TrEMBL record:
Protein's UniProt keywords contain Protein biosynthesis: no
GO biological process: methylation
Pfam families hit by this protein: Methyltransf_11 (PF08241)
Domain Methyltransferase type: 30-119
UniProt name for this protein: Methyltransferase type 11
Organism: Coprobacillus cateniformis
Length: 232
């Protein structure tokens, strides 16, 4: 991961996500909606990784430290993969933007080996309200989210918010194992200069990690990192 070319917010989010994933070695991993490929490259150091991403512009100029298989496409490419062929599936900041997310989740279940793990990073609706009010002064948008309306992201389009338990509703054989908060504090810090300091980043990662398991802080975190297990 090139710290010089990745924005501070993304760098922190990647580093915290790495920590939350824990050590994964000698596994076959699918990264669906792999974006710029940074996560796929990181995981490819000790694993076999297949990455699927529909937007080729997301990764066309990227250079990676580790090799992985990159496929351009979406749901149709998932359907081509062999049943029960992956130990771990990664889907980070993707499902909210997918029109066919229930079908995608069912494909994840089909592709995972028995007792395989699904890692999903997703918007937390209440955290999004915090973001609209505290950071962006978008009061009308905050009210709309509280009223149950979808949100919008400039680069990716409409955000279809869903609850952590919805994946278990779309595919009842998934079991929710744990939820961790991500991005609870650091966006609330308005001093842009301090965010580039390594000491500040280390302190922020430490406190973010500490509160990630505390329900009161999870409730206002901008994102949730949710782990599901394929029920045998």
């Amino acid at each position: 991961m090139n710290k010089e070319t990745i924005p501070t917010w993304e760098l922190l989010q990647k580093r915290i996500t790495y920590k939350q994933l824990g050590q994964i070695k000698n596994k076959r991993i699918l990264d669906f909606g792999s974006g710029n490929g940074v996560m796929a490259s990181y995981l490819a150091k000790d694993n076999e990784v297949i990455a699927i991403e529909p937007n080729q512009n997301m990764f066309k100029d990227m250079l990676y430290q580790n090799s992985f298989i990159q496929i351009v496409g979406g749901l149709e490419e998932l359907r081509k993969q062999k049943k029960e062929s992956f130990d771990v599936i990664i889907c980070h900041n993707v499902l909210e933007y997918a029109q066919c997310r229930e079908e995608v989740v069912k494909e994840f279940y089909r592709l995972l080996k028995p007792a395989g793990s699904l890692s999903v990073v997703k918007h937390n609706k209440m955290g999004r309200v915090m973001q609209m009010v505290v950071l962006l002064n978008e009061f009308e948008t905050a009210h709309q989210i509280l009223d149950g309306q979808n949100g919008y992201a400039q680069d990716f389009g409409e955000i279809h918010y869903f609850d952590d338990q919805d994946i278990c509703r779309w595919e009842k054989r998934f079991v929710l194992e744990k939820t961790l908060g991500i991005r609870t504090f650091w966006d609330l810090q308005q001093n842009q200069n301090v965010q580039t300091e390594e000491e500040w980043q280390e302190n922020m990662i430490e406190i973010e990690e500490r509160v990630s398991t505390i329900s009161e802080f999870q409730a206002i975190a901008f994102f949730h990192h949710v782990f599901y297990r394929k029920e045998i």
